[in-house]
Structures are given as C-alpha cells and as structure tokens.
What we know:
The chain has 125 residues and is α+β, with helices and mostly antiparallel strands. It contains six helices and four strands. A two-stranded antiparallel sheet has the order 1-4. Strands 2-3 form a two-stranded antiparallel ribbon. The chain is globular.
Amino acid sequence: xxxxxxxxxxxxxxxxxxxxxxxxxxxxxxxxxxxxxxxxxxxxxxxxxxxxxxxxxxxxxxxxxxxxxxxxxxxxxxxxxxxxxxxxxxxxxxxxxxxxxxxxxxxxxxxxxxxxxxxxxxxxx
Length: 125
C-alpha cells in the first residue's frame, strides 16, 4: 500500500499508532494503585499492556504479564545474579521484581509474548 510522504509522517507521529514505549516515573509500582478520591493510577503492568495493543481486542493483559513474573524462575526472567535468590524466594508474588525496573523511557517489542517483554524490561533496567 502506498501513501504520500505527508500521510506517512502523520501516521508515524500519531500517538494512537505508537506502541512499545513506556515512561516509568520514580516510585511507580508494578500494580495499579487506587489513590485518595478513588481514582486508579496505572501501574507498570497496565502501562506495558496498553502499549501491546494491535487493536481494542488484542493486547497482552496485565494479568498475562503478572503470570509470566509469577511462573518463571528469576534466572529465566533475566534477573541479575545478585537478586535471583530474593526474587525466587517470592514465587507467586507479582511484585517480586519491583525495584528491578528502572525509571525512565523504555522501548520494547510490543509483538513479543509476555515473558519476552518482562525479560527485556528487566535486562535493560
């Protein structure tokens, strides 16, 4: 399919077309948090999930990302050797990698599976 240079530039810069980019601020948690007043603040799992959507119905869910964290040994998650013991000791806890994801702008392959995305995030942090 062909398009003009102007149309291509608009498509490339349209925020709705951007995938695989998440900005993690200092102190952000992995899971969603309900703040005073009842508003829900997205956690890292939700932010990543939203960036994997190919359309409204095809996304890697936050639950799939959590399952990858819960059901995968630390070494296969890409956890640094110094932290594997502590992370493996907290199997069944989706927060067990908290603190291993560094703040900042992160790029990832939104077409990867849940484990691939989590592993890439940990290894790049």
